[in-house]
Amino acid sequence: MDGMSKVLNAYNITAFYRILYMYICPACCCGKNAKKTRALYFNGRWLKVSKACLPDEIKWENIGYGACNRRIRKLFIWLIAIIMIGLGIMGVIFMKVKSDGMKKEF
What we know:
Strand content: under 5%
Number of domains: 2
Distance between the termini: 84 Å
Radius of gyration: 29 Å
Oligomer: single chain
Mean pLDDT: 83
Low-confidence stretches: none
Helix content: 55-70%
């Protein structure tokens, strides 16, 4: 078994079993598991381990931007989209009013 699968298997313990091993029965049947589980904590926190993606799946041009910068860009794009949708709805309403006015004239 290679290192990656060993790490993924080691951290594949649900919160229920961690609580069971650490607090409910560490002295009886689960003492060995409690020691193993306690050793997997890093600075008192449980790590979330998952398989890394391949390097060609990463958008390397986006690496230089921080989280705040990405949020501001998303907000700006959403605002532009909402404004465009609003203008489209206002255009439809304006044209409906104009067509109703022209129907009354003729």
